[in-house]
């Protein structure tokens, strides 16, 4: 059983790397990851989801579990995601600063 997690504030390739590393450190197997969406092999329990939520929030991301919020995030990703690439400076809303693909996000 695979699980899809929806994550807000992923705006660049560096964000993808940070989220993938974070989930790996929490013991989850990432099958596929893209801006705003992660597919993991496991089916997390409620306590696992809370650990994921807290870890994501600590680095400026947000786990989205409300269907309406997920839809809004998916629409934003489809509209704005095509404009984002590692050559452009992108405002990183979670960090209130510009995020570049190679920039370090703490």
Summarize the structure.
With 106 residues, the chain is α+β, with helices and mostly antiparallel strands.
Give the structural class. Answer: alpha+beta
What share of the residues does DSSP label as strand, in percent? 15-25%
DSSP summary, beta strand count: 6
Number of separate helices: 3
The largest sheet has its strands arranged as: 2-3-1-4
Which spans of ≥5 residues are poorly predicted at pLDDT below 50? Answer: 84-91, 100-106
Radius of gyration: 13 Å
Specify the overall morphology. Answer: globular
First and last CA, distance: 32 Å
Keywords:
4-stranded antiparallel β-sheet; alpha+beta; 106 residues; two-stranded antiparallel ribbon; 6 strands
How would you describe this protein?
Helices cover 38% and strands 23% of the residues. The chain has three helices and six strands. Mean pLDDT is 80; it is low at 84-91 and 100-106.
SSE diagram, text form:
Layout: E1 3-8, H1 13-25, E2 30-34, E3 37-40, H2 46-58, E4 62-64, H3 67-80, E5 90-92, E6 97-99
Antiparallel strand pairs: 1-3, 1-4, 2-3, 5-6
